Amino acid sequence: DPLEYQSIPADADQCLSLAILKRPDLLMGEANIRLAKDNVEAEKAGYRPKVYLQGLYQRSYPGYSASFTDFFAGGDEDTEPDNNNNGAPGSLGNKEWERTMNGGLVVEWTVFDGFATAGRVAVAKAQLRQEEVLLRKAEEQVQLEVTQALLRLNNSEKFVESQSGTVTNAQEALRLAQVGFHEGTITSLDVISAELALSQARSDYLQAVYDYELSKLTLNAAIGTIGEQAIPAPVAAA
Fold first, then answer.
1. Do residues 220 and 228 make contact, with C-beta atoms less than 8 angstroms apart?
2. DSSP H/E element including 99
């Protein structure tokens, strides 16, 4: 693609606001704070009662003689009992299995745990404060990076404009040199010098445009919008 100069408007306040919403490190810091708050609430659960719902279902055989041989020698385990057998060996399958079910609700409430819960809550709150401090530092760093990127963009834009004027002056100087050469007032060496000056001016201009494009990418990186056309234009006052 041709290296062309395309100026973009960039408002400092809108760039900073967009960076708060887009920068991955800030989003991660906010997520860490939410996790730390959840951890504080989880540790506070030690002060609260715990409720358990329990249930038990059991089947047992009431006979006094049970072996694998007796079991497979009998009939189905749910066969009606034989009242004439009285649980003798070899009649395991003819006994009725007993079924037992019970359930209950258990409530636990720790009255004193040696300040273990209080200690865990204090540690969780300290971790929360640490995450908040880290987020504030990250926000300050983002603000610094966006401000520096905006300054670099502004300086690059001014340098492009100045180099554009240099190219215009060099073109005019070459035109005058060519006219003077045709009129015989200057030599061909003066024309060549003017051409070299124009080539150097164009080279400096393209380098300035290149630096400006890098400045735009730097600003996008500071905002967190690399690959997006997300640098906002200034909002006109109502």
1. yes
2. strand 98-108
